[in-house]
Design goal:
2 copies of one chain form a homodimer. Chain A is α/β, with parallel strands linked by helices and about 350 residues long. Chain A folds into 2 domains: about 1-125, Isopropylmalate Dehydrogenase, CATH 3.40.718.10; about 130-290 and about 330-358, Isopropylmalate Dehydrogenase (3-Layer(aba) Sandwich), CATH 3.40.718.10. The first copy, chain A, contains 13 helices and 11 strands. Chain A has helices at about 25-35, 50-55, 80-85, 90-100, 115-125, 160-175, 200-210, 235-265, 265-275, 275-285, 310-325, 330-345, 355; strands spanning about 10-15, 40-45, 65-70, 105-110, 135-140, 145-150, 185, 215-220, 230-235, 295, 305. In chain A, strands 3-2-1-4-11-10-5-6-9-7-8 form an 11-stranded mixed β-sheet, with helices on both faces. In chain A, strand 1, helix 1 (about 25-35) and strand 2 form a beta-alpha-beta unit. The longest helix of chain A is centred in the C-terminal third of the chain and has 27 residues, at about 235-265. Chains A and B meet through helix 8, helix 9 and helix 10 of A and helix 8, helix 9 and helix 10 of B. Chains A, B: Homodimer. Probably interacts with PlsY. Chains A, B: Pathway: Lipid metabolism; phospholipid metabolism. Chains A, B: Its main location: cytoplasm.
Chain lengths: ~350, ~350
């Protein structure tokens, strides 16, 4: 475990122009984060006059701030290739560049995910031995939080990529929680006898044989993600994205039911009034904003993606997570583990996927 | 829409021996269902002495009941092939046979899913034009219930199978709700630009061009399942199974949070006491037992799978669903639509999956 850094020595770059809600929402989020104890210096990247206007509306006192002007904006619906071609003057490019040039320890953006991935890969490169970045989510669970990855960056993966996700998720979880040996599981369906799991079976085999250090518990099911018994849940980006959004929808539905129960009649309303403090805590717990901020793991620098539609509270959470991660550098740990596992993985005898499908 | 049948003229076959909780739980579920107004005659299939003992403990009065003796039991962990070979004297085989022979209008089993699929396919055959059965789930939503399929029967599917699932889900939803044109969506990740969706894009294209009657709304995301805006959500069995279990886990986690909020201190407890009636309704809504009972669609007969671990309440729900479906026959509707869509689908120009992957 790396030594914890002095947080006032950190700098976080913020792509102020990205996101659906506009620059003012981003600056408002920064203001809340500073009020809640964020210590890192903020490097605000975007149109100078807009940032200054937003800061006038949401002042952050004498907290260290630097503005880096960038004229361009990557649109939320730009294709990654197009964003790459014409983005070199954009706030997103500039914010990522500050990490590349060592002027910032991490970057956060609410902008276009595809463009952020492409711009980050181009500037920061991948960690040696990692094929593609994975988007990871913090997921509330009975024991606190679980890390789930990939939640949308890679719709199709190989067994080797799932192994890389497992190693990255483990290092990420360790950086966040200081738990030395996080429990890692591969997301699968319950029944053992089904076809189509060759990929996952191969990934499990490689993990078991090539990474004996990992506390790998084998396959887990959808309901295990929130059970608290597994810390890192590994899956492809298609399944992970659908699981994440399904959970958000479920929480929202149940939240509506709870609200209905609390206001259905006078007696219930009187009861709810007595319970106000407990209900407030419940509301905070159920607020998706409290877990906003997903690092794109595998890059040679810290890049955190916020929900495009995040409001100030969500942006604050993402900034807090980014500071936490910048203070516990884990990229070296990923690089070291990946190198040794990739090496040993070569001798693992995996099933032939094409043959198994027949 | 088919005419509704007189429910007292229906017979439901019950595989009494399947399930984790044993025959008494199944009979107890039948007792609750009868008390709540189930009208169909019950054909109880299993060991006669065990059924009689269970009926003595959970009597169902003068409700029409017939016992069909079967000596064998399919074990919960039997492989389908093994279950098929040695299962012809089992309660599962006997229960499905009663549908084949026209002595029952539907069958319900809490037993081994793989064995139930295999035994049902062998005896009841598939509907012409349907490749494989799909397991469908009733999913609570803002507007009532959505149907999601496949939730675990087919881990890998083709675009044509997704189209078949859509047609089956539409007919199933119509039978349950009498809504003439249910809204059908294909489950996908949010971002359009991702690879790996050739399969789903092809399915969407076929549905649009070959089934103009369907109210097909295109792609939906995980959070749309419970939003109430889509009635039938179509996906492969891997994704569907993980989405279903993830939602169950999320509901359980949020339920634990709610319980904690209600009992965290004296004031909260006093408030909760005032709210008791509303909270009871909330608890029922959140109980997975209330949506137990998933038909295996595509078979030439009505086969409903209950959770293996279902308790009496869940078995009651599954029996109620089975009666509802038996009273609104929809197998002919599936057959008719599948035939015409399959015919038109041949002229739809779909993408080459292999080429798109390059």
């Amino acid at each position: 475990m790396a030594m914890q850094m002095d947080r006032t020595a950190l700098t976080l770059a913020v792509d102020v122009m990205g996101g659906d809600k506009g620059p003012k929402e981003v600056i408002h989020g920064a203001q809340i984060a500073v009020n809640r104890g964020l210590q890192a210096k903020l490097l605000l990247v975007g149109r100078e006059n807009i940032i200054e206007e937003a800061l006038a509306e949401h002042p952050i006192g004498d907290h260290p701030v630097e503005i880096q002007h960038a004229d361009g904006v990557v649109a939320m619906d730009d294709k990654p290739a197009r964003a790459l071609r014409r983005s070199k003057d954009s706030s997103m490019w500039g914010a990522v560049a500050s990490v590349k040039e060592g002027r910032a320890d991490g970057v956060i953006s609410c902008g276009n995910t595809g463009a952020l991935m492409a711009i980050s890969r181009l500037q920061l490169r991948m960690i040696e031995g990692i094929d593609r970045p994975a988007a990871s989510a913090l997921w509330p669970s009975r024991s606190g939080k679980a890390v789930v990855l990939d939640v949308g960056a890679n719709v199709e993966v190989t067994a080797e990529q799932l192994v890389q996700f497992a190693i990255m998720g483990e290092a990420y979880y360790r950086a966040l929680t200081e738990k030395e040996r996080p429990v890692v599981g591969l997301l699968n369906v319950g029944e053992e006898d089904l076809k189509g799991n060759t990929l996952i079976r191969n990934a499990a085999k490689i993990l078991r044989e090539a990474d004996p250090e990992m506390a790998f518990c084998g396959f887990v099911e959808g309901n295990d993600i929130s059970s608290g018994e597994v810390d890192v849940v590994v899956t492809d980006g298609f399944t992970g994205n659908i699981a994440l959004k399904t959970a958000e929808g479920t929480a929202r539905l149940v939240g509506a039911w709870v609200k209905e129960a609390l206001t259905s009649n006078l007696m219930a309303k009187a009861g709810a009034a007595l319970m106000m403090p407990s209900l407030k805590k419940l509301k905070t717990r159920m607020d998706p904003a409290s877990v906003n901020g997903a690092p794109l793991l595998g890059l040679g620098g810290l890049v955190v993606k916020s929900h495009g539609g995040a409001e100030a509270e969500g942006i604050c959470s993402a900034l807090m997570t980014t500071e936490e991660l910048a203070a516990h550098p884990f990229l070296d740990a990923i690089a070291k583990t990946v190198a040794s596992v990739n090496d040993r993985a070569k001798s693992v005898d995996v099933e032939d996927i094409a043959a198994a499908a027949e």
